[in-house]
Amino acid sequence: MTAGRMVMTDLLKPEEIKKALDSFAAETFDPKKFFEMVGMKAMSAENVKKVFLVLDVDGSGFIEEEELKFVLKGFSKDGRDLTDAETKAFLTAADKDGDGKIGIDEFEALVHE
């Protein structure tokens, strides 16, 4: 199975994704709480990295700020866009080396933090 053909529902339960998205519909997005709600915190590092590959839309090996704004759409087409403030907060929480983007290891570390 290649990352290009993998979809989020191959990795996570659709009902858990929907429940997590609904809970953040009007509330400030909290990536750690969201990842826990969709079951990612309990996943192996290897499977979390598979989720990262689905979210890395341009295949650059990083989730850049532009991609991060639409990260919830990576979980479901019904996901909302993050606000600029939420996007910046997510980036700040995950970007440990300060390069302005989230690498696969930084993503996995944030999920399991």
Structural account:
The chain has 113 residues and is mainly alpha-helical. It has helices at residues 8-11, 14-23, 31-37, 45-55, 65-68, 71-75, 84-94, 104-112, and strands spanning 62-64, 101-103. Strands 1-2 form a two-stranded antiparallel ribbon. Helix 4 (45-55) packs across helix 8 (104-112). It is globular. The chain starts with 7 loop residues before the first helix and ends with a helix.
- Count up the helices: 8
The biggest beta sheet, please? 2 strands, antiparallel
Low-confidence stretches: none
What is Rg? 13 Å
Q: Helicity, in percent?
A: 40-55%
Share of residues in strands:
5-15%
H/E element string?
HHHHEHHHEH
Structural class: mainly alpha
What characteristic shape results from the CA principal axes?
Answer: globular
Number of strands: 2
In angstroms, what separates the terminal alpha carbons? 28 Å
The spatial strand order of the largest sheet comes to 1-2
**Average residue pLDDT:** 93
Brief description of this entry?
With 113 residues, this protein is mostly helical. Helices cover 54% and strands 5% of the residues.
Task: Produce the secondary structure layout.
Blueprint (H helix, E strand, L loop, with lengths): L7 H4 L2 H10 L7 H7 L7 H11 L6 E3 H4 L2 H5 L8 H11 L6 E3 H9 L1
Antiparallel strand pairs: 1-2
Helix pairs in contact: 4-8
Give a quick set of tags describing it.
mainly alpha, two-stranded antiparallel sheet, 2 strands
